[in-house]
Please model this.
Amino acid sequence: MRIRHLQPRNLRPALVISALTLVARVVLAGLFATAGVAKLLDREGTRNAALDFGTPKRLAGTLAALLPVAELTAAGLLLPAATAAAGAVAALLLLAVFTVAIAWSLARGRAPECHCFGQLHSAPASWKTLVRNSALCGLAIFAFAGSVTAHDASGVVWLGELDGPELLALGTVVIAAALLVVGAITAYAVAAGAGFRWY
Model:
C-alpha cells in the first residue's frame, strides 16, 4: 500500500520520518552554505581565526581557503537524496573538528573569535558554542540515519504525497518558521546595536 493511501490516523510514520529528515538536511545545508559563503567573502578574517585557534602560520592560509569549500561541499551534498548521507557525514566531521578545536582552546583558558559566519556573526568561543555545535552534531546524525533508512527522502516526492490540508499546514509552519527566524535576527541586530553582549 502506498503511503498516500493510508488514513490520517495512521500518522504515516515513514512519511513523517522522511519529512523530518528532509528538514534536518535543509537546515544543515542552509547553515553550511551561509558559513561557507561568509568565509569566502572574508578570507583574511577566516585566516586570523585559524591562527587564533592554534593553526600553524604556514597552514592558516590554506585552511582559510579549504574550509569554506568543504562547508559548501557539505551543503551541496545534503540537498539531493542520492548524496544526503555523504553530506550528513561531511557535516558531522566538520562539526566534530570545530567542536574539538573550541573545546581545546577553552580548556587552555582561551576564547578566540569563532568566526563561524564570517563578518555576518563572530563572537568569542564559549560553552554556548559547544552546546550549539553538539546540537548540530545530533542533527547531522539524525540526517544521516534518516537518509540511509528512509524509503524516500526526496522533497519533490514527499510534497506530492501530501493532500490539500497537509500542504496548507506545511505552508503555515514554513511561514511561521520564517517569521521566527526574521524576528530573531532583527532582535539580535537591535540588541547588538544597543551594546548588549550575548556571552
Q: What stands out?
A: DSSP finds seven helices and no strands in the chain. The radius of gyration is 19 Å. Residues 11-153 form one domain. The chain has two domains: 11-153, 162-199.
